[in-house]
Design a protein that fits this description.
alpha/beta, Arc Repressor Mutant, subunit A, Rossmann fold, 2 domains, about 55% helix
Length: about 290
């Protein structure tokens, strides 16, 4: 981890709530901090420019531009490969040509996968899979842009966890869905900055209820991280408007594989029965 990112993480708990909002954005979007103006970053972080100035001072910098220079040094390191060259181009030219868009996307996704796998190990994956398998009931929440991630997980594990459910708040029943979480359950939660309020509330409710939390998020200071029994920090950088979901999707795919491995023959039997039912119902196209 870069020294500037490590410094922000170290000082995070001592910051005011508003400064924490700005700090979280910097931790999750170092590329943006290097490229865009202070006003632009303040707008993206949903804070005022004055907040960015106070944060830079709190971190020991005389001026905000001094702080931004540290981020520019971070993203322009040659060791970062293709991603670093793409970021350097943004710094020098203030934008990317249409011909370079696909290459920039590819570089960003390579960086995301490296970050995601760099923060994951066999023990973390195995322990999270064990928690899911041993839980009385599996709950999951991923709202707005993260909805597709938990939808895939539910689909991929439907034969292993038939009673699992997604918390969606449909028909205004968000509170009712939360109250179904018990002390022997597990909640899989996915959220990136800016964090959807209901997802954060669900994690805190589940923790209070005694359930275990498996969090897939973008920063060790994410509001999902504090109470997580198993924490997956994924890369989600993108030159596009929305955050990349590749790192989160890879993580749930890895979780599914770990679950299958842990269940052994039980998983194989369940999958064979499910496949047979689908074929008997002519679910698949016979061309």
């Amino acid at each position: 981890m870069s020294d500037i990112l490590a410094t922000i993480q170290k000082e995070y708990q001592g910051l005011s709530p508003q400064l924490q909002v700005a700090a979280r954005y910097m931790l999750s979007s170092p590329d943006d901090v290097a490229v865009y103006s202070m006003r632009e970053i303040a707008g993206r972080a949903f804070v005022t420019p004055a907040t960015m100035v106070r944060l830079s001072s709190k971190l020991g910098f005389e001026k905000y531009n001094d702080l931004r220079d540290r981020f520019r040094q971070l993203v322009s390191r040659p060791a970062s490969g293709y991603a670093a060259r793409a970021r350097k181009l943004q710094l020098e030219q203030g934008g990317l040509s249409s011909e370079g868009l696909l290459g920039t996307l590819l570089s960003a996704e390579k960086d995301n996968l490296q970050t995601t796998f760099g923060n994951m190990d066999e023990r973390l994956l195995g322990d999270a899979a064990a928690t899911l398998v041993n839980a009385d009931r599996v709950h999951m929440i991923g709202l707005r842009k993260c909805n597709g991630i938990v939808s895939f997980f539910k689909y991929a594990t439907r034969v292993f966890f038939p009673s699992a459910r997604m918390i969606t708040g449909a028909a205004g029943q968000f509170i009712e869905e939360l109250t179904e979480i018990g002390p022997d359950d597990v909640l899989l939660a996915v959220a990136f900055d800016p964090y959807t309020r209901e997802t954060v509330e669900a994690v805190r409710f589940a923790h209070t209820a005694g359930a275990k939390i498996i969090a897939i998020t973008d920063s060790p200071v994410s509001p999902l991280a504090e109470n997580a029994a198993h924490l997956f920090i994924v890369g989600n950088r993108s030159p596009s408007f929305y955050r990349s979901l590749s790192g989160a999707l890879i993580t749930v795919q890895a979780l599914v594989a770990a679950i299958v491995t842990r269940l052994g023959d039980e998983a194989i039997d369940a999958l064979e029965k499910s496949d047979q039912r689908l074929r008997e119902a002519e679910t698949y196209w016979q061309g």
